[in-house]
Write a sequence for this structure.
């Protein structure tokens, strides 16, 4: 139970990839088409350059403090109390996000696979496994990712390849019919969903990952692969189902998998998609929840995050039952406040961190210069 | 709990402390009496008083444990020499000029290779009860301990637990020395170091640690010694005791120590840098660190051709999942996900299940439990009855249960599939862990369907990746991923491809061989020519 | 149902608390008990179907002026 775990670059890269794929492969097609109709997939592609830029910026911030995690940087930059308050708000953000992800799992399972099981039990079981994982520690989760990633990728590639015969390219024509504006809103949506939340990985990134990392290998490539898969799935969903059907489904990718039929031999493969999706979401939720716990641990100065693991999991389960009172509220939240919420934490907050830290280093630099001049 | 433990310890210590004599007495009779008294007059220990020397002036006492010694040896080389042959010899002055009879005996009379001089009383008992002969002298507080060990032991036979079609058919026996000899015969290298030490306050069982110096990682060797030195029990009756006392995780269904009866497996493990622990009295030798993949590797994989070995290995992994998940998948599909079963199969399944009074979970539980009972009975029963039981189990129970409508015939297929595939694993103790987990998965399937199974698998993998065996991650070449070790995980590369030792177990002496791919000159293909590897 | 919930909550508390008692300091146990107590109250309140508003509504309320500003 040592606190000082070290991941290697490969493991961290896989976690980044799973984090990006996470909920996206199931939900993005619907939200992207909802915003940009049949051009939704272009919106998802556009995320890639912006996301890479964003990651580069995050890396710049964190490389200033290579031995601190995000929360320690907080205290360093903003001082003790403000830093702790910010850590607490990150914890709050993480908790809300974890609860929504948990809600999505419970909702998906209860709607599509386990029709008669109450959502609360589904959530409890999932959270129990998350507790197991986090109790063993981050290193174990990363290693588990190493074992599952080949399976996830194989299953996803299988879904994509098996859907190819059903593709109808008429669904995506004409390209950019309604101009660029709706596409950009789809981009913003996907950005808030998969990219802006990546800042929570700064709790792990420079400190707990083995050094001499090539940035491209650790961050950029896995991110690009993740976005590539999301784009593929979105594109194929649109071309197979058409944009209207895609946008009204809550989980269009699942519908896509239901449509797969290969020569009467391979049918009903939607469970394959469900398996790979649950696996990816497991890692995404683990990371969110790990971030949440670490944030609270730092905010309250507790020795180990495992102390508050179980009670926080109970809170998360309870929250997951009430976060979305109804579906209408959920869709409205997702398309308005959530974006603002995630931009605040994923965009404004790192920016603030960067500005303040730059000012501080400048100040301390000039100060030290003064002192040297005095001598 | 704690109090009880302390209480017992105290009691034992006080018992041991009573009137112990540290060193041998000077008088022969006193020594003999004391030894006899301490042994409670056990009848298997033989006491023999005799006189030696030209005029019979030297009083001697001989003690040995009957059954643990070679009788002929004592007759011919101890008693005969001392009692008759010495008398016939006339010593020259220079030879006989010794300050004591003790030296005389040691230098000229005892014609034995392995001999030791002892002074401590507890050493006397230790040597005596492990089969050595003790020779006591009058007026001397030293004794000879002559190695005359020899007893009825099982011969080297074909191992019963891990049979192979092709490969050596020798198996370890219960005698430590035979076992170390079997290893020496395979590895004739001065770097094969075997060190032994007695463990167990009462049984004094010899436990030997064998490793290849320079190949095995020093840290792991140190760790093994540390854990062995920590052991403080009264008895070691099998290597299972040692395994349980040194394993990393007690509360885990998965074994973190490998055991085998095959000397060739152990030799291969030693050459990979693993460490063998040989326990006297047990034909099962332990091998650490043991990794997950090791339980899927059979010795025969390396004796058969690489392509066939790969196929067999894939089948083993497949049967691992089958044994683990078939009953739970059946339960999940028939209870929660009927829409996933193809229609024609669903119809025949439901028509079979129509008359079955139980839900699928109970049905599966009944059959799996029945099978486990049958298996256990088959192992324990006398061999003559065993086959009869298997007929009863297989035919009568299986068929009759279906005909009576207790279980569906699909369920019987499921159970037999699980049963067979759980025996595919080359290692018996790994199959046990699968069997235990199976019931957990069945419960999960009965409550949450496939979702439960999937989360169960995630939890299982989390547990597996959290395990370590002597500091080495249990899932090691897969997680953490080691690229160079993938050649011996799912695939078994051809022999020239297995050029390096496993990376995590062994850090220093990596290169195993420098053979290049065999290329007959007649069919030389320049395109695929390999460059010779440089030795590091 | 009541019984099941309370039993499971108590068992979890005992198992987890015992583990923490063994491995950590006393101060940590106090923190754990406090957090666990609060989370249990939350769970029970939810079980009693008390009207707990979604925290998302609060966040929406905070962001309302900003969003209106943006949409204008």
């Amino acid at each position: 139970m040592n606190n000082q775990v070290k991941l290697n670059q490969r493991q961290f890269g896989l976690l980044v990839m799973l984090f990006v794929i996470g909920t996206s492969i199931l939900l993005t097609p619907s939200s992207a088409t909802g915003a940009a109709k049949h051009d939704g997939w272009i919106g998802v592609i556009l995320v890639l350059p912006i996301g890479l830029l964003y990651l580069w910026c995050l890396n710049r911030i964190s490389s200033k403090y290579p031995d601190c995690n995000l929360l320690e940087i907080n205290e360093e930059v903003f001082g003790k109390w403000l830093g702790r308050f910010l850590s607490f708000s990150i914890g709050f953000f993480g908790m809300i996000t974890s609860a929504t992800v948990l809600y999505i799992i419970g909702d998906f399972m209860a709607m599509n696979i386990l029709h008669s099981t109450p959502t609360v039990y589904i959530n409890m079981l999932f959270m129990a496994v998350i507790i197991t994982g986090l109790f063993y520690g981050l290193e174990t989760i990363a290693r588990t990712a190493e074992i599952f990633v080949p399976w996830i990728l194989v299953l996803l590639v299988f879904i994509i390849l098996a859907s190819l015969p059903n593709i109808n390219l008429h669904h995506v024509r004409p390209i950019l019919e309604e101009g660029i504006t709706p596409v950009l809103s789809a981009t913003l949506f996907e950005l808030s969903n998969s990219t802006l939340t990546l800042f929570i990985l700064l709790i792990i990134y420079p400190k707990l990952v083995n050094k001499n990392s090539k940035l491209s290998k650790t961050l950029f490539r896995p991110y690009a692969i993740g976005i590539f898969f999301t784009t593929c799935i979105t594109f194929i969903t649109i071309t197979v189902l058409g944009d209207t059907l895609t946008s009204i489904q809550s989980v269009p990718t699942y519908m896509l998998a239901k449509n797969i039929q290969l020569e009467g031999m391979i049918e009903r493969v939607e469970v394959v998609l469900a398996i790979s999706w649950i696996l990816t979401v497991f890692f995404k939720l683990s990371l969110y929840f790990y971030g949440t716990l670490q944030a609270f641990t730092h905010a309250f100065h507790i020795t180990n995050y495992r102390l508050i693991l179980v009670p926080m999991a109970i809170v998360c389960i309870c929250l997951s039952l009430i976060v979305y009172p109804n579906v209408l509220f959920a869709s409205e939240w997702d398309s308005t406040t959530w974006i603002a919420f995630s931009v605040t934490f994923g965009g404004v907050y790192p920016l603030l961190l960067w500005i303040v830290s730059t000012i501080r280093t400048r100040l301390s630099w000039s100060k030290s210069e003064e002192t040297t001049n005095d001598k | 709990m704690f109090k009880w433990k302390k209480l017992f310890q105290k009691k034992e210590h006080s018992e041991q402390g009573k009137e112990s004599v540290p060193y041998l007495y000077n008088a022969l009779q006193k020594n003999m009496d004391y030894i006899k008294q301490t042994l409670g007059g056990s009848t298997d220990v033989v006491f023999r008083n005799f006189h030696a020397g030209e005029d019979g002036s030297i009083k001697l006492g001989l003690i040995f444990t009957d059954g643990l010694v070679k009788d002929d040896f004592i007759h011919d080389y101890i008693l005969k020499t001392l009692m008759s042959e010495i008398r016939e010899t006339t010593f020259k002055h220079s030879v006989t000029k010794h300050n004591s009879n003790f030296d005389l005996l040691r230098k000229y009379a005892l014609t034995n290779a392995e001999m030791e001089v002892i002074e401590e009383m507890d050493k006397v008992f230790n040597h005596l009860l492990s089969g050595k002969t003790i020779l006591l002298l009058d007026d001397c507080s030293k004794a000879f301990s002559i190695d005359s060990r020899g007893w009825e032991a099982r011969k080297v036979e074909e191992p019963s637990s891990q049979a192979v079609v092709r490969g050596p058919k020798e198996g370890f026996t219960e005698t430590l020395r035979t076992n170390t000899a079997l290893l020496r015969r395979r590895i004739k290298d001065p770097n094969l170091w075997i060190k032994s030490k007695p463990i167990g306050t009462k049984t004094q069982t010899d436990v030997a640690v064998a490793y290849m110096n320079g190949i095995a990682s020093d840290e792991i060797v140190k760790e093994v010694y540390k854990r062995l030195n920590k052991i403080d029990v009264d008895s070691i009756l099998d290597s299972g005791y040692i395994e349980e006392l040194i394993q990393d995780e007690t509360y885990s269904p998965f074994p973190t120590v490998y055991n085998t009866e095959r000397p060739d497996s152990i030799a291969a493990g030693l050459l990979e840098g693993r460490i063998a622990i040989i326990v006297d009295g047990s034909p099962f030798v332990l091998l650490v660190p043991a990794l997950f993949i090791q339980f899927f590797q059979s010795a025969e994989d390396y004796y058969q051709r690489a392509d066939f070995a790969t196929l067999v290995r894939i089948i083993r992994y497949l049967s691992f999942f089958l044994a683990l998940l078939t009953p739970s998948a059946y339960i999940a599909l028939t209870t929660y996900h009927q829409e996933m079963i193809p229609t024609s199969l669903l119809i025949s399944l439901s028509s079979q299940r129509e008359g079955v009074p139980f839900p699928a979970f109970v049905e599966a539980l009944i059959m799996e439990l029945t099978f486990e009972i049958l298996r256990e009975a088959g192992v324990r029963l006398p061999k003559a009855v065993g086959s009869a039981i298997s007929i009863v189990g297989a035919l009568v129970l299986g068929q009759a249960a279906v005909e009576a409508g207790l279980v569906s015939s699909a369920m019987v297929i499921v159970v037999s599939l699980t049963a067979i595939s759980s025996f595919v694993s080359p290692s018996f103790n790994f199959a046990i862990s699968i069997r235990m987990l199976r019931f957990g998965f069945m419960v999960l399937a009965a409550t949450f369907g496939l979702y439960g199974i999937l989360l169960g698998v995630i939890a299982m993998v989390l547990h597996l990746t959290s395990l370590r065996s002597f500091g080495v991650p249990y899932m090691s070449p897969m997680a953490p991923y080691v690229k160079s070790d993938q050649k011996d995980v799912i695939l078994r590369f051809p022999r020239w491809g297995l050029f390096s030792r496993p990376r995590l177990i062994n850090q220093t002496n990596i290169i195993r061989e420098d053979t290049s791919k065999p290329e007959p000159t007649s069919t030389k293909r320049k395109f695929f020519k390999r460059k010779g590897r440089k030795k590091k | 149902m009541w019984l099941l919930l309370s039993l499971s909550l108590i068992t979890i508390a005992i198992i987890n608390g015992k583990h923490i008692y063994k491995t950590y300091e006393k101060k940590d146990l106090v923190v754990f008990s406090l957090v666990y107590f609060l989370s249990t109250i939350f769970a029970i309140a939810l079980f009693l179907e008390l009207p707990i508003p979604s925290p998302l509504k609060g966040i929406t309320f905070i962001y309302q002026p900003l969003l209106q500003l943006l949409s204008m």
Notes: Chain C has a mean pLDDT of 82. Helices of chain C lie at 2-23, 26-47, 55-71.
